[in-house]
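Notes, p. 3: input format for complexes.
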Amino acid sequence: MKVPFFSLSNIHQPLKEEFLEALSRILDKGDFILGKDVLAFEQNFAKYCDSSFSIGVGNGLDALKIALKTLNIGLGDEVIVPAHTYIATWLAVSEVGATPVPVDVCNDTMNINPKLIEAKISNKTKAIMPVHIYGLPCDMDAIGAIAQKHKLYIVEDFAQAQGATYKGKRAGSFGEINGCSFYPSKNIGAMGDAGAITTGNEIFAEKASMIRNYGSKVKYHHEFEGVNSRLDTFQAAVLDLKLTKLDKQNKERRKVALWYKERFQNNDKIKIQHIPENCESVYHLFTIRTRKRDNLQKFLTEKGIGTIIHYPIAPHLQKAYTQLKHKKGSFPISEAIAEETLSLPLFLGITKEQVNYVCDAVLEFLN
Ligand SMILES: *Cc1c(COP(=O)(O)O)cnc(C)c1O
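Output follows (367 residues plus pyridoxal-5'-phosphate):
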């Protein structure tokens, strides 16, 4: 048996005719950038996220950067980020000129540890950026209370968590302004790069939508220095079609995750992400942790099972951030995750037989 790490065909094949129809319609009309479909998708996506406004942009990193710029966060400011995340979270902060200030994550949820945040707040801190890692929402009540006490913004990075809920409320509705990615492998992905901002604040929404389009509302009138990060009409059409299937697909992912859990729960050699009762994860990834990770990965490769490490090096230990002078050992849980984590196959259409084959192989290796 072969089990790929990932496949999009079960998501895309049933919609192929509709995608081609949309492409043909947009081709005939010629409105390739910020066309009608963009507006429709923005409205539908905002609603989906329990938010009021959504702004389509070029990719997830730009969504986060534009969100920070909308809040006037830049040179000299500090933003709290988790030490365990994809590097894009940090890059959004440093690219606008601010400094990412890392906080270690919880050992069980692998999300930012609210108890460690206050010690990192200084008079330069402007915002907290929670990342809902692997599709699991952060402890938003605790983070919200800290933000309120210290008058900080919350900017969610919900690139991995479209549709996930915390106390029944969707990711992308907690921060003043938030960003997510529609990279093809995300729970909802485009056919290329794309991203979106969500906000409940009309003024922020208008400013963010101007920033993405050269700081302009009226063509050739530029109120400030914006950027070019617009959403393609075709990508919006693709995303709008896929949005209607997202809840069903997230449910499917939870079912697959449950298959894994049934086999791995109560096994003291394998650690899996703890899902608190008030959260519903959308399982962007199903990860396990083991000290023998590298050898396990080799073993699974030999058995025809695809796996990926998310992520092998924590951002604070990346070459790109040597100037921040973080030392090995400063964020022990995030560093341990980088050494132990392994993502197992999880995609639409994976069968129970395939999941059992993966579980058998993992358990064979560890026992
Ligand atoms: C994918 C991802 C991003 C960046 O998205 P791009 O569209 O690739 O720019 C940001 N943060 C997290 C947590 C991600 O997983």
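The chain has a mean pLDDT of 97.
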